[in-house]
Amino acid sequence: MKKAQRRLAVTMASLLIIECLLTPLSLWADSLSGQVESFVSPDYATIGSIDEDSVINDEEQNGRDDRSIASDVDSPSSVSNESGSAAADSTNSEKGSPVEFGSIAYQAHVQDIGWQDTVSDGMTAGTTGRAKRVEALKINLLARDGSPFENDSISVQAHVSGIGWDAQPVGNGQVSGTVGQSRAIEAIKLTLSSNLSDTYDIWYRVHSANVGWLGWTSNGGPAGTQGYAYPIEAIQIKVILKNAQDAPVHGDAFKDHAQEPPTVSYRSHVSNVGWTSVVTNGNTSGFANSRNAIEALSPGVTWYGYGGSISSRAHVSGIGWQNWSSGAIGTTGQSRSIEAVQFRLNGEISDVYDIWYRVYVSELGGWLGWASNGAPAGSTAKGAAVQGIQILLVEKGGPAPGDTANHFIGATDILSGSSFGLNGKSLGSAQGKSILLGSESGSEPLTSLSISFDNQETLGSIGYSGCYEFGGWGDVVSDGVALNSKNNGRVLKAVRLTLTGDLSNSYDVWYRCFDSKEGWLGWTCNGADAGATISGSFLTSVEVQIVSKGSSTPGVTDSAFVSDTSTDHPHVVYQAHSANRGWSPSVLDGQVTGTTGQSLSLQALNVSLSGVDDDSQIEARAHVANIGWQEWRSAGYVGTVGQGLAIQALELRLNGSLANQYDIYYRVHSAGYGWLGWAKNSDSAGTTGLNIQIEAVQIKLVAKSGDPGASSAPAFISVPALTLQAHVATLGWMNPVGNGGVAGTTGRSLAIEALKLSVSSSVSGGIEYSAHVQDVGWQGWTSNGNAAGTVGRAKRIESLKIRLTGDLSNYFDIWYRAYCQDFGWLDWTSNGQPAGTSRIGCRVESVQVKIVPKGAGAPGATGRPFTDQPLLPADMMAMLNRANRYSSNTNWLIMVDRQACRLGVFRGQRGSWSYAQYWTCSTGAPSTPTPTGEYTVTGKGYSFGHGYTCYYYTQFYGDYLFHSIPYYQGTFNPMDSRMGMHISQGCVRLPIDRAKWIWDNVPLATKVVIY
């Protein structure tokens, strides 16, 4: 390429010389400069310094460049660099002051390829048809001499995937985009500096994925896409003179997703077909002109860069109107057809667009009229299925897409309401121009309402709020939202209803209430109060009517709202939430709320004042299982709902001026105890620390110095504080322990010689205890911190008795057990029964005492808390007592009583050995006695003997062994099987199975004691 350019330059120069010779000097002088510059390429000035090899190398390099972009260079849209250079030269002649711009060179960093070779002046950098993103660009403006322009000669700004537009553009020769981050450049802006932009324009266009070549743009205009995640795959750039005739034409160079209008999309589930494909923007979903009904519909809206959604609902055969939904509407798998629909926009999109829709119903003649913005389309009460649907968006206030007549066949602006009682119980629903919510003949309090319009034609909403027993007036909700969605037990006492929007211009909403004490109250309308705030009453029914604006009243309007005027006599109103039953109706002034005799825990409690006209109020707090004391509350319930946690104690108090005139009294029914006494003014009622549930409660106001009524029971019971202290042989008095703690020692063979017990409780009473002492027997009862037993006389306690006195014994049991010599822990006993041993000389070494609620049951087994029978026969006891004086290098010990011919195998440790085996054996004859003393197991073997065989021997001292009886040599035919006799040569004989047991189980280094 360059070689051809140079040959052309030489030829043109020769022609110029000939022209000059034939032209007058003056004309030649005027034109020479511009003509030479017009024909001589930028490379010609240096052609003499380029050798042939350099030219060949340049051509080879250009050949490689051409191969990489061949498809683009040969395309009609490719641009040569000739016009750019010619334009640059012509500028010099016009301006008279040389501009040294030479060319523009650029280089792309491409996915999976890296940096490509540099191209220039309109050539293609990147790739097409290979789905490879451009990740970075370097652009160089070069002067005629090939040197780069200054950094600020060009501004390059890229829009990078996951980042957006570069915060700071880069300059000449710098990298724009990213390398090594797998991020695509999606759009680009190029701008020349002011001294270049006065003379030149920079033009560029990009090839974007999924789009192809976009149009040309220039001088800082964006090229590419934004918001689609379409990477640039190739780019062309050139610099030409301003207003050049061969300049590209500006085209569609940039696509911004945010500038596109929103799209509404939808698809239908059609009977006998299933889900159909998604359609958009007014196209038909379903099958018009068929009998296949639409059973479900899934609509959606997308608007890039903006928020918004569609809510919809359907009138379904056999069901009626469904609730508004942001997802699919209708049903699948139930063979139920959609008969009517409603759609409305939410969020930003609703401020800019209206949503229009129409349905095809074959039974009603085909396409019905267009409806918009929540109006119904279709029919009700006709049994006519929808077979097709069209949905589209129109700019706000724009004309309807077509005829709007007969878009809905049926009554419009119909009230639809539901009512609920305590614990979320449904009390039914109703539809029509007049609806009755709840029941005038029932006793179930209303706790919540929901009201909306079906087949709504007139724009607007219905709002409603309620006044509650334990909360006053609540917030306004509207259009089917539940008035009270919380399971807080609050019952309605009054309501207000209002209309908004066009509904309020077309209709009045009238309503009246049925009060549990007053019956039907008068009618009122349009936001006025209806109901009664009478102590102890509640609403059981609300009737609502929608009538044309200005129509006559539905009935009597007197006493629509009745307030409690009995402020001279305040009331306390309260309500229980019980396990398995939920909230009960509220009661007042000393009545029982909750249950008794059913073992149902009280889990939450509402309480408030009624009949007061100042700021007086009740505060309450509860002690809850697994939680403890809650914070004081003056509004809302105390306790918990839905967690299965029982209230165990309560505290109530008055605030405000009423506290100067009244005391608040309260008492609880606790499981196992029944009704406790009255507490007042922040005192605790119930129990703590005993895991005993409250089941019922009574609350009342009593004038100062008044009498709440007699009760001998305590109002509050907590776990008594028990102190137990033991005096132990050689140790003296040990540190005291509390309820359930262990006093004394175990495993040390140390006797308890004395005990002290004391108890502290809010319940009257005390503790008594008695000890059975060695050589003394049972002592008399002592109490409250005095010592039972002896101190300084070395006499062991062998058993004990403990009991509670006074009211403590009515509300608590005291359980205890003893750890006794040779026996360990005996079982539990209670309330004055003996624990331990007598007549067998066994010491008590530890004692455990535990106070529990009355009737709560023993802490453990109760089979044998006391005994006067020895645990072991006398010979075994004697050996065990001797064994406890020894230690062993293992947790095994062998004892042999050679006179009694008894062998004991023990496990454990010194002071706490226990029998593993106890056998009769044969020991040495008088002439060959078994040696006495302490020995160690040193070896084992299978057999030995000459003329006889003994099996399974265990060596403990020289040739002295434990082994089997002798057998005839090599056989298992006994020679002498006598046991319990002194007949051996000094070894200890055992039956073969017992010799093998020692051989198998007792390890080397085990101590052996023979006495």
Question: What would you note in describing this structure?
Answer:
The chain is 11% helix and 42% strand. The chain has 1011 residues and is mainly β. The strands form 18 sheets. Strands 35, 36, 37, 38, 42 and 44 form a 6-stranded mixed beta sheet that branches. Strand 39 (507-515) and strand 40 form a beta hairpin. Helix 1 packs antiparallel against helix 2 (25-39) and helix 2 (25-39) packs antiparallel against helix 5. The radius of gyration is 52 Å and the shape is flat.
List the keywords:
single chain, 1011 residues, mainly beta, six-stranded mixed sheet
Write the layout of secondary structure elements.
Elements: H1 2-21, H2 25-39, H3 52-68, H4 70-73, H5 82-95, E1 101-110, E2 114-115, E3 119-120, E4 124-126, E5 134-143, E6 154-160, E7 164-165, E8 175-177, E9 185-192, H6 194-197, E10 200-208, E11 212-213, E12 217-218, E13 223-226, E14 232-241, E15 254-256, E16 263-270, E17 274-275, E18 279-280, E19 285-286, E20 294-302, E21 309-316, E22 320-321, E23 329-330, E24 338-346, H7 349-352, E25 353-361, E26 366-367, E27 371-372, E28 377-379, E29 388-395, E30 408-409, E31 414-420, E32 426-432, E33 434-438, E34 448-454, E35 462-468, E36 472-473, E37 477-478, E38 492-499, H8 502-506, E39 507-515, E40 519-520, E41 524-525, E42 530-533, E43 539-548, E44 561-563, E45 571-578, E46 582-583, E47 587-588, E48 593-594, E49 602-610, E50 617-624, E51 628-629, E52 638-639, E53 647-655, E54 662-670, E55 674-675, E56 679-680, E57 685-688, E58 694-703, E59 716-718, E60 721-728, E61 732-733, E62 742-744, E63 752-760, E64 767-773, E65 777-778, E66 782-783, E67 787-789, E68 797-804, H9 808-811, E69 812-820, E70 824-825, E71 829-830, ...
Parallel strand pairs: 13-15, 28-30, 42-44, 57-59, 72-74, 75-86, 78-84, 82-85
Antiparallel strand pairs: 1-2, 1-3, 1-5, 4-14, 5-8, 6-7, 6-9, 9-13, 10-11, 10-12, 10-14, 16-17, 16-18, 16-20, 19-29, 20-23, 21-22, 21-24, 24-28, 25-26, 25-27, 25-29, 31-32, 31-34, 33-43, 35-36, 35-37, 35-38, 38-42, 39-40, 39-41, 39-43, 45-46, 45-47, 45-49, 48-58, 49-52, 50-51, 50-53, 53-57, ...
Helix pairs in contact: 1-2, 2-5
